[in-house]
Write a structure and sequence with these properties.
The complex is a heterotrimer of chains A (103), B (173) and C (649).
Chain A (H helix, E strand, L loop, with lengths): L4 H21 L3 H25 L4 H33 L13
Chain B lengths: L1 H27 L3 H21 L3 H26 L14 H21 L6 H5 L4 H9 L3 H22 L8
Chain C lengths: L8 H20 L2 H25 L4 E10 L2 E9 L1 H24 L6 H20 L3 H19 L6 H32 L4 H9 L11 H18 L8 H4 L5 H10 L1 H11 L1 H6 L4 H19 L5 H21 L3 H29 L15 H15 L5 H15 L3 H26 L15 H16 L11 H7 L11 H24 L2 H9 L1 H8 L4 H72 L7 H19 L4
The chains are: A mainly alpha (103), B mainly alpha (173), C mainly alpha (649).
Chain lengths: 103, 173, 649
């Protein structure tokens, strides 16, 4: 093991935190989607790290990570489809301009 | 050989640091296209970390799917939805102070957990390796059910995305 | 006791006429009179055979129990004994004749049918009174007669004097009626029955029921109180003031009610209660005194009156006084005899006066004169009646008045005898004064044009004239004083042999009276004014009716109205004040409640709404519509959860 487990975990934590920051703060919807991709990646890193260091069946983590990648791709696809549909109607991709459900 | 080991370890740390830097770029850059490119860099860096963790197949898949397909998708979407020339529009909304504070708390707490938890790192686990064959066996063996479900979900997502994103048929009067 | 139940139809038929005239009077119009007269005549036809049977010694009675009270029970029924037979005979005949007259007299009046309705009701009540066999039924009929008197006196109610007169009549007789009511209730307390036959039996000593202790004081009180009823109804002193004013009613009413029948009911009451009065003989002097005072006083007033009906009214009062005196002297036969004869000739006098008024349209005798030629029938019958009233034989009035004078003289009441004789003189005088001024001499008022009345009015006059002549015969020597013997079957009282002295006195004074009147009013009219100027006090007392009306007004009526006003103001201030106060209170409370309801209750409800709104105004800001806000909240919540799980919070 090249790097001790806590370090990788810290790393993925930081990546996740940055992803959350982006999700909360970016005005552009696509920016939010990008940040979500970051978060998913951080989770993947966690999965791989744990499967490598603590479990007896490392395939479990890696298979899981594969599924996560697939899911992430799907979510990106559907999310971008929605963004396109939204852009067509509202002509904007900025979240703070899309507040029809405001009180 | 130890120099390679130390160099490898050093390199992994550098890659990790770079990934974090690029991640910051993803969330802060005003130009969305630049963000997307930073994301691509992050994804590549993550693949490298996978390699360091001896998960080579996942690393390959990461590059193929994420960087290849998802990034393409994202770039397409960016290009379809905005004018690339604008740089002056603020990219962060007014939530950033609260978010930063929350996140610092979050990092602090989870970090505490990570550092204090006695992870059951076993030598035997460290010694076990994987191969594509074992992954294939597992995928078709114990994990065949999620595998099939994934394919269903993929179909659903595909159809869904098409339905959502297509233009409304214009009615001929 | 044999029963003759068909006698009950006698009062019922006129009552049916009353109902019919009240309900269908407008449609019947002039036929209303036929209905009244017909029922009256049929009643007469039913009554006369029964009376005839009683005259020959029969006796009828029957009862039904109406109420059971204490030791006694109230029975309603009829009693046909000599007294009631006599009255029934008189009332039905005179009543029918007067109604025939009235059908002509009242022709053209807008309330024609109502008049006959009231008259029928009156006849019904009077007939009930005559045949009733107990005090309660008697009293009920008495009261209804009082009501009819009120209605008929006030028949021309548009005239203020008539409205006042009917009220005065009702109130004055009411005073007597209260006494009568108390009287027979006291009697009931004493002897436990109101039935005449039982009372007679108890008083005579022939009672066969359980023995009872009867306090004499109660009987004295009862008899005096019952006599109060007579004082009121028969216009005795001091309650005589209503009868002259009652002349405001139509003349047939005066004839029927205030001459022949209703005023006679008071005398009839004393006659009916004769056994009671005989049992407590000490009250009889009181009765006699009242009667004598009344007779004298009324005749004295009549000397100077100028309204033809007023003279006759005072004459009636005077003759009623005679009757009461007769009864007070224990002369049941004498009083009843005079009652019967008086009904005929007084009714005739009133109807004749009515005829004169109908013909001349004036009532003041000073405006009349020389009417004999223009109204021969009226004048002749009027003179016949006056001769009867004055007491000239062989007319009926002589026999009956003589009987009373005989009773007075023979029982030793010389003072009474003297006063009654003087009164007879005055009676003859004022009646012929009336006749000479009205029918003889020159016509005093050129505007008065007289004409004779139609046959429907003059025929009853002649019928009554014949009655005035012959009705006295049953009590005269020509029939061997059959009537007195007949009445003696009722109870025991002293009987006296006819006295030539008394007869001579009465004839003398009558002739003297007529002669004086003829001298003054046919030849030397100046004597009238001279007498008046020589005795100014007497003249004024007579002319002003002894100032009774003024005295009563000042000492009785004014204090009572003052008390009434005080009570009214009390009622207004206190009672109405209490009621209004309650109303105000309720209003105030309701206003209070309204304020409470509006401000507190509604305020509470509104407050809830306002509170919700206020909270909402705060909370709704969370719903910004921005997804990233929601994500931030979720994230912060998640952080809080983790911190809690890590036991940091």
């Amino acid at each position: 093991m090249i790097v001790p487990l806590p370090h990788i975990l810290i790393f993925s934590l930081l990546l996740f935190a940055i992803g959350i920051y982006g999700a909360l703060v970016r005005r552009n919807i696509i920016g939010i989607l990008i940040s979500i991709e970051l978060m998913l990646n951080a989770a993947n890193i966690n999965l791989i790290a744990f499967s490598k260091t603590t479990s007896l069946a490392p395939e479990t983590g890696q298979i899981f990570a594969l599924f996560v990648i697939a899911i992430a791709a799907m979510s990106a696809a559907v999310g971008l489809a929605i963004v396109l549909a939204l852009f067509r109607v509202r002509k904007t991709v900025y979240t703070d301009e899309v507040n029809l459900l405001k009180w | 050989m130890e120099i390679l080991t130390i160099g490898a370890k050093f390199g992994v740390y550098i890659v990790m640091a770079l990934v974090l830097v690029f991640a910051l770029g993803v969330v802060t850059l005003r130009n969305l296209f630049h963000s997307a490119l930073c994301l691509a860099a992050v994804l590549v860096g993550t693949a490298t970390v996978y390699l360091a963790l001896r998960a080579d197949f996942v690393a390959a898949i990461q590059i193929l799917v994420y960087v290849g397909a998802v990034m393409t998708l994202i770039i397409f979407a960016i290009m379809l939805t905005e004018h690339l020339g604008e740089k002056t529009i603020r990219q962060t909304n007014r939530q950033s102070p609260a978010a930063i504070l929350g996140l610092l708390g979050f990092i602090f707490m989870i970090g505490l957990v990570i550092l204090r938890t006695p992870w059951p790192v076993t030598k035997r686990a460290l010694a076990t390796g994987t191969s594509v064959m074992s992954l294939g066996k597992a995928l078709m063996g114990s994990y065949v059910f999620p595998f099939e479900i994934i394919s269903v979900i993929l179909i659903a997502a595909l159809i869904g995305a098409v339905v959502i994103a297509k233009k409304d048929p214009e009615e001929k009067s | 006791m044999v029963s003759a139940d068909h006698i009950l139809w006698v009062p019922l038929l006129p009552f049916a006429a009353f109902i019919a005239n009240i309900l269908a009077g407008r449609r019947l119009k002039h036929r209303a009179a036929w209905l009244s007269v017909a029922t009256s005549a049929v009643a007469c036809a039913i009554a006369l055979p029964v009376c005839w049977a009683v005259f020959h010694g029969a006796h009828f009675a029957n009862q039904i129990t109406w109420l059971a009270i204490g030791k006694g029970s109230l029975q309603f029924g009829y009693l046909m004994d000599p007294l009631s037979a006599t009255l029934l005979f008189m009332v039905t005949i005179v009543g029918t004749l007067i109604q025939i007259y009235a059908s002509g007299y009242m022709a053209g009046d807008p309330r024609y049918s109502r008049f006959f309705a009231y008259v029928s009701l009156f006849m019904s009540a009077m007939l009930t009174l005559v045949i009733s066999d107990n005090y309660l039924l008697f009293f009920m009929a008495w009261e209804i007669m009082g009501l009819c008197s009120y209605l008929l006196i006030g028949f021309y109610f548009e005239k203020e004097s008539a409205a006042k007169a009917c009220f005065k009549a009702f109130l004055t007789t009411r005073i007597g009626d209260v006494g009568f009511l108390l009287g027979f209730l006291t009697l009931f307390t004493a002897i436990g029955t109101l039935s005449f036959s039982k009372m007679n039996a108890i008083m005579d000593g022939t009672y066969t029921g359980p023995a009872m202790l009867i306090p004499v004081s109660l009987l004295v009180a009862a008899s005096l109180l019952i006599f109060c009823g007579t004082i009121g109804k028969s216009a005795q002193f001091p309650l005589h003031v209503w009868l002259p004013d009652a002349m405001e009613g139509p003349t047939p009413v005066s004839a029927l009610i205030h001459a022949a029948t209703m005023v006679a009911a008071g005398v009839f009451l004393v006659a009916r209660s004769f056994s009671l009065f005989m049992a407590v003989r000490d009250v009889l002097p009181f009765v006699t005194t009242i009667g004598t005072i009344t007779a004298f006083m009324a005749a004295f007033i009549a000397l100077t009156q100028t309204d033809i009906k007023r003279i006759l009214a005072y004459s009636t009062i005077s003759q009623l006084g005679y009757m009461v005196t007769g009864l007070g002297l224990m002369g049941l036969g004498a009083g009843t005899f005079h009652l019967t004869t008086h009904a005929f000739f007084k009714a005739l006098l009133f109807l004749g006066a009515g005829s004169v008024i109908h013909g001349t349209h004036v009532q003041d005798i000073r405006q009349m004169g020389g009417l004999f030629k223009k109204m021969p029938h009226t004048a002749t019958t009027f003179i016949i009646a006056s001769l009867a009233l004055a007491g000239i034989p062989p007319l009926s009035g002589f026999w009956s008045k003589d009987e009373i004078l005989l009773t007075a003289f023979a029982s030793g009441n010389i003072l009474v005898f003297g006063v009654l004789l003087l009164t007879a003189f005055m009676t003859a005088f004022y009646m012929f004064r009336l006749i000479f001024m009205t029918f003889f001499g020159k016509a005093r008022d050129p505007h008065v044009h007289a004409h004779e009345s139609p046959a429907v009015m003059t025929l009853p006059l002649w019928a009554l004239a014949i009655g005035s002549i012959v009705i006295g015969i049953p009590g005269s020597p020509f029939m061997h004083h059959w009537f007195q013997k007949f009445m003696a079957h009722m109870t025991h009282y002293p009987e006296y042999e006819p006295s030539a002295f008394v007869m001579g006195c009465s004839i003398t004074v009558a002739v003297l009276g007529i002669g004086l009147a003829g001298v003054i009013y046919l030849k030397k009219t100046a004597w009238a004014e001279k007498t008046a100027s020589v005795f100014p006090t007497f003249y004024r007392l007579s002319l002003n009716k002894f100032y009774f009306d003024e005295l009563y007004s000042r000492f009785i009526i004014k204090p009572f109205t003052a008390i009434g006003r005080i009570l009214f103001s009390f009622d207004e201030a206190v009672v109405d004040g209490a009621v209004n106060g309650t109303g105000q209170n309720t209003l105030f409370l309701s206003r209070l409640k309204n304020w409470f309801d509006q401000h507190v209750v509604d305020g509470l409800v509104n407050f809830m709404g306002a509170l919700t709104y206020f909270l909402n105004a705060i909370v709704k800001r969370l719903q910004t519509g921005l997804v990233q806000n929601y994500m931030l909240f979720a994230f912060l919540g998640f952080l809080a959860f983790i911190a809690w799980q890590l036991k940091l919070i």
